[in-house]
Structure of Alpha-type protein kinase domain-containing protein:
Amino acid sequence: MYQCCLSCPLGTLTSEFHLTSDVLIELIPCQNHTVEVVEGVSEDVKCAPLLFKDDFLSEQYFGENQPASIMTEQIHFGEGMHRRAFRTKLVGGMQPTFTAGHPCVLKVHNVVSQGTKKNEDLIHKNYNLAAEECYVQNTAREYIKAYTSVAKTTEEFGEVPEIIPIFLVHRPSNDIPYATLEEELMGDFVKYSVKDGKEINLTRRDSEAGQKCCAFQHWVYHNTEGNLLVTDMQGVGMKLTDVGIATPKKGYKGFKGNCATSFIDQFKALHQCNKFCELLGLKSIQPSLSKPKRTATAPKPKPQPQAKKKPFVFNLKSKS
Ligand SMILES: Nc1ncnc2c1ncn2[C@@H]1O[C@H](COP(=O)(O)OP(=O)(O)O)[C@@H](O)[C@H]1O
Ligand SMILES: [Mg+2]
Ligand SMILES: [Zn+2]
């Protein structure tokens, strides 16, 4: 299916044309919009946001299903450890969250990539995996909202990273009926190291976003008394997606993460505080090295004034 841009009055041109330059020229009549070629499959879906009550860790529920039409490319463009990512365009619905034509990403878990073939257990698994992604990412989003309101009180902090929301998608006409939907992030997609926030790729570039992600991890770790770690920070610049959460095995205040508890120990051992941790008054997680013993002749050091900065304690129950 080829179409001019979505706001063009010509609308969708279902066509048997092959994409020769002639066809492209024929598709140019719209003067206001550039011609866009979308090859994909249209389907009607229902999308549900994850909503929270006062206690966002334990009181989470899916909101009303919103009808939407999407057109999804048949070949995935991204692949991670667990899921394949397909470019999709919102043809209608989901307003005002997205405008028509908004570039989005539909993610399908690999466990069910062969289809569910109407098998109840597989459908269940498919639902649970998609729902879990929504719980994890949207919960991390609530934490980063709280972090943002604290960071904003320190002028020098500057821009704060955002974790984008994801929606649960029901695709009644598809053999893999559950997936997630989110906006497409444009630009260099990178993962940030838990240790120092550097990009995890060959360039190992240092970035403000990466450092602010690490400070965010430290802030959440501190405010949950070491019980919850937002991990796997990745995305484009200040916009993040596909983060993970690690908690103790039994969970934390009714919430269970999707990453191994050992991620928390790893963070504790590796995290290096940066200037953004300092701006928030966070103290180093590693135990301080034991002081060298003074010799009998060495002069007694003068008592140093105590550092005034207190770590911020944010009441995570008060939603921003
Ligand atoms: N919102 C997005 N915008 C642009 N590219 C994305 C987006 N989400 C994921 N990708 C790309 O798709 C890949 C796989 O998606 P991801 O969510 O990381 O899957 P997994 O859960 O398997 O790690 C990513 O590594 C990235 O290259
Ligand atoms: Mg990933
Ligand atoms: Zn730190």
User: Anything to note?
Assistant: The chain has two domains: 1-39, 40-279. Residues 1-39 form one domain. Helices lie at 21-26, 120-151, 208-223, 262-270, 275-279.
